[in-house]
Amino acid sequence: MREAMATLARLQARSKAVGQQYYFRNSVVDVFRKKENDAAVKIQNWFRGCRVRAYIRHLHRAAIIVQKWWRSYLSRQHYQLVVKLAYYTMKMNLYNEMAVRIQRRWRGYKIRKYCFDYFYLKEYLRAVTETNDAIRDALEEFAEMKEREEKKAALEREEKKRDYQARKMHYLLSTKQIPGIYNSPFRKDPDPWELRLQKAKPLTHQRPRVKQKHSISLTSWLACTSNRSFPRSEILPPINRKQCQGPFRDIAEVLEQRYKPLEPTLREAEPINELKEAREDLRRQEWIRNVNDNMFLPFSSYHKNEKYVPSMHSSSKYGPNSYGCQRFRDENPKKWICPKEKETRSNMDHKNKGQVNTSLIFM
């Protein structure tokens, strides 16, 4: 007990020194502990880095092996495809060359056999020549036949015309008492027309058909525009006697010429305001054409020495002709503000030319 107490007394006596020693030792241990910790961290960092780099190198080697095998597989596939394409190209080139040879041989044979065969072409040209000769002969025969037919038709028309003329001039036939104009006593043989007149029959005129009576208006009867405006007798029945010889005209034609409608005189046919209408028409035409007697050149001295000749329709020696209307550019001395006696002669001439030109423009 005493020893324990003595030990406790010693410890209490030494407690302050023990506390200081503990604090000193702990502070020294903390400094070395941080240094050791940093050293341990560095060692662990280096070890872990070596391990990770070794693992990454292992992964790189494995990936390179995988890529090498895959790329070799793709290369082999591509090479096989290239070989197939080359083989197919070579085969197609060979086939094309063989086909070209066959076509060349066949086309040469065809051209030599059918197109440029000398004997065949000679035979063909001979056949074409014979056919052309036959067609030409047929066309010449046809043309001669058509020409003969046309000549025959022309002769027939001429003969009919002469027969009709003979029938029309049948009254010139010779009689026992009086010889005709074609049977002169001074000729040994009669004229051919005399023989034709003897063979021909006299031309008989057909009587006009009697038209049905139609009503004539009072206006047409008073204006004498109808053939039946004047009273006429009924057409008598034909007399059974021989018709007189001679080229007599038809009675309807004679009556139509005899009772022609009245024609108005020139004074009645033309309107009373013909002159006014003509002037209006002339004004419209000049307005459309926009005719000027002289070109207006204000900045040119070429026309200064020329004398202005006014138009006959726009002015006269008695003054301008207004054609029934007042122009807005005409001068009116009653409306002048001041007299214009100071104007020179050249200005007056230029002004008169401008007035005439404007009057022609606005007509």
From TrEMBL:
Coiled coil feature spans: 121-163
Biased composition (Polar residues): 354-363
Basic and acidic residues bias (residue ranges): 343-352
Location of this chain's protein in the cell: Cytoplasm
Position of the signal peptide: none
Superkingdom assignment: Eukaryota
Keyword Ligase included in the entry's annotation: no
Cellular component per GO, a single term: cytoplasm
InterPro entries membership: ASPM (IPR051185), IQ_motif_EF-hand-BS (IPR000048), P-loop_NTPase (IPR027417)
UniProt KW keywords: Calmodulin-binding, Coiled coil, Cytoplasm, Repeat
Chain intervals for the UniProt region annotation (Disordered): 343-363
Molecular function, one GO term: calmodulin binding
Annotated PANTHER family: ASSEMBLY FACTOR FOR SPINDLE MICROTUBULES
Identification of the protein by name: Spermatosis associated 17
